Amino acid sequence: MSDYNHEQTEAIMVVRKHLMGIPASQLGWLKQLTRSYVEFRAEVACFQEESFVGICSQKCFTSRTSACCGREGIITFFADVVINVLLSTHQEIDALLQTLEQDTGGSNCVYLNETGCLWRLKPIVCEMFLCDQAKKNVLDENDSLRQQWERFRQQERLYTWPTRPVLFDELESFFIEAGFDSPLMYLHRSPGLLRLKSRHGLSNQSLSSPER
User: Fold this and answer.
1) Calpha distance 26→73 (Å, rounded)
2) Which of 66, 131, 142, 180 could cross-link 60 (Cys pair, CB 3.0–4.6 Å)?
3) Do residues 36 and 117 lie in contact, with contact meaning Cβ atoms separated by under 8 Å?
4) Cβ distance 130 to 79 under 8 Å?
5) CB atoms within 10 A of CB 62
């Protein structure tokens, strides 16, 4: 198993095991905490489906010539894993772990199969990536769509960019306080993001949840 697959596997297993063992009140708190983000992702997915599915399906999935689903090129945040596990069935999580274990290499993302991405809610970097051709063919030709996409990009930062308390940081903190660690906890590990937090007066502070 590659280092990438091992890190992904460990994160998924840690998250699933911990979420299965916490009180219902904590689980409900986490779902409430992530609700607006899930709603945001639904809006983005609808926009992508309406505006880009024809271009992206042909260039990226059917022809498999694009780098957007390249081998081990997908940055997965720990919060991506947490949210996906919260939304997924046990069977869906088992499928992710199985494909990571049985992966034999290749040029495509390990999570990409013949029907598409195996994640219930794919990583945010996947959702928000548009290749130059897609942007040229769609956004450059339509001011309204370009402005909507920019609004989505700004909204994304409210959950992921730690110039203020953000969801992705809070989810990492929740697991760190429970004694867990992962290479995917970039908001507590990345030197660049740590410097950004420091410049804005943020530390790796804890947060309050029920029955902690």
Assistant:
1) 33
2) 66
3) no
4) no
5) 9
- Which among 178, 82, 71, 63 has a CA at the least distance from the CA of 124? 82
Q: What φ, ψ does residue 70 adopt, rounded to 5°? A: -75, 160
The one-character DSSP state at 138 is: I
Contact 184, 76 (CB under 8 A): yes
- DSSP classification of residue 48: H
In the Cβ-directed half-sphere of 26, how many Cα atoms lie within 13 Å? 15
pLDDT tens by residue, the chain, 212 residues: 899 999 999 999 999 999 999 999 999 999 999 999 999 999 999 998 887 776 666 556 555 555 567 766 688 999 999 999 999 999 999 999 999 999 888 777 889 887 778 999 999 998 998 877 778 888 888 899 999 999 999 999 999 999 999 999 999 999 999 999 999 999 999 999 999 999 999 876 544 444 44
Contact between residue 71 and residue 108 where contact means Cβ atoms under 8 Å apart: yes
Instruction: Note the Cα 110 to chain centre separation in Å.
Output: 15
pTM score: 0.89
DSSP state letters, 158-184: HHH--SS--HHHHHHHHHHHTT---TT
Closest listed residue to residue 130, CA positions, set 148, 106, 110, 107: 148
